[in-house]
Amino acid sequence: MKRYLIQRIGYMIITLFIIVTATFFLMQLLPGTPFTNPEKLTAGQMAVLNAKYGLDQPVGIQYLRYIGNLVQGDLGYSFQHEGRTVESMISSRIGPSAFIGLQALIIGAIVGMVLGIISALKHNSLFDYGSVALAVLGMSIPSFVFAALLQYYVGVKLGWLPVALWEGYSSTLLPSIALSVTVTATVARFIRSEMLEVIGQDYVITARAKGMTEKQVVVKHVIRNALIPVVTMLGPLAVSIMTGTLVIEKIFSVPGLGEQFTLSILVLDYSVIMGITIFYSALFIFVVFVVDIIYGFLDPRINFRGESA
Amino acid sequence: MKENILTVDNLHVSFKTQTGKVTAVRGVNFELKKGETLAIVGESGSGKSVTAKSIMRLLPKHNTEISKGDILYGEKSLLSLSAKEITDIRGSEISMVFQDPMTSLNPTMKVGKQIMEGLQRHQNMTKAQARDRALEMLKLVGIPKAEQRLDNYPHQFSGGMRQRVVIALALACNPKVLIADEPTTALDVTIQAQILDLMKDLQQKTDTAIILITHDLGVVANMADRVAVMYGGKIVEQGTLDQIFYNPQHPYTLGLLKSMPKLNEDKGQPLLPIAGSPPTLATLGEGCAFAARCPHTMKVCHSYTPQDTEVEQGHTAACWLQDVRTPKASPGEVLGVN
Ligand SMILES: Nc1ncnc2c1ncn2[C@@H]1O[C@H](COP(=O)(O)OP(=O)(O)OP(=O)(O)O)[C@@H](O)[C@H]1O
Ligand code: SF4
Ligand SMILES: [Mg+2]
To answer: Measured between beta carbons, which residues in chain B are less than 8 angstroms from residue A230?
Structure first.
């Protein structure tokens, strides 16, 4: 177990390093400068600014310097906001994003599980067909479409919930619901197919042959075994929520990390773009890691030495 | 004469499939007496498992139809029981052991718990009592260090040990009938013998009646009191072990025996597998299902289905050679047995 952990953490660091490097060099390819109204600046002023932020150095040096600072936990300063560290910009924005993201995950997971389980138990019924169709829609229609629909119908027409802005709990609901649609659809589809697979397994027949009632068979043997692999969906779901927040926060004017990210890209605030990318990547790598550990505890067949007993 | 514990009477089972209705069991009759072992043999697809699962009512509800016949447990018709009543019988009165021990245990539940579940369901036991009984069962089926093994998961056992667990699970509630559907097919030869010995041994201790489904006539010879030979969804011949092995009256039974290695070695004859392939159930109509492969086919075989004929006390065969209405056919002469 200990060896496994050390190895895993090593891989995680390498992965992160590759992502940082790739993002750094890709960003060099972006046209433009990070300064406001560069056309009004004289060549001299430009040179001063470039020197101040180290942009006059060769790319290689800039890269090494960035990595050097990163290792010490320093993400640098914003190019746009005088004197603000990237770190403070991330941490001041994280709360709203985390809140609507987690809320979306919880709503999506619960609704998705219920739909998926009922679908599988009523395999080939009208309910099943309906929920499969809805799941396909939910997975293929982008979340901003739902966001717009929710804003219009629930926000404007019915007036039940705030259309946008960040003013108390009620403002978190529409963004979370819009984000949760993809999660619901993905989870529902996944659980349905897991359930159908488990229902056909020999050990389910064994459970019936023992005289377990249908309810006991479903709860103790089918659902339990079908739910375990759902944990592996957390990684992809986290990504879908992270990318979802980029647009959703913009639409609902949520002062979160996603909104900050889109803003920074528009004005080429290099250090903030890098910082948020690293943050998202690290978060994702961490989620995948945690998922693997949890899975190992849930499924007794897995042990961390990678042997099958 | 011991009493009948299980009676299968003219059982017909069909499935609705995409390509139409398939009748997999087409009039099966047999009786099982207390404490005896009935072996059901026959080629793949002959309907052995379907018959077994019908008794336990384990066939999928949505596409199965039991169109005719009945199954009696004692006096009680199993087919007319409610869903709740049949679950009371499963695992407590009639138990089943399946072919593949690698897949027949729940991979994420400790084996002790899997045995205890049935006990708690049927015997009103507390957790502690059920655990004691589960431990006793694991010891009984010969699992070493049973105390620790209770808390292990199935993947921590070898195939043979798993099948022992499955047997422990099946016998935990002292059922009157154990249905074992090819319980050793998935195991190594040496392990097979151990598992069969174990079953024989436990049967003597508990007086359980066993229906043993198998392809292996060697296993039959070791285990069975009576033998039923299935072909194309029917029992074409049944009788005591000696009757079937030493006085077979159906050409298919004879073919099976000739394809069995041991018997031939004795006579120095080559192995003779039955030529041809099993019938397609979907297209089977009137006539003997074996007609296309039978070396003694007559005209009547194609157009009329042969009925069970008693050839001696407790020994029946369904073949026109045995029928009094075909007096010119003398089965002993034709088949080369007497
Ligand atoms: N649930 C089902 N739906 C449709 N057809 C089925 C179903 N179960 C069994 N059958 C068909 O019934 C026939 C008899 O199957 P069965 O499993 O009883 O054979 P078997 O004698 O046990 O063979 P084997 O020795 O291979 O186990 C086969 O043709 C099979 O395809
Ligand atoms: S009834 Fe005819 S075809 Fe069928 S086994 Fe007897 S002799 Fe052969
Ligand atoms: Mg079978």
So the answer is: none
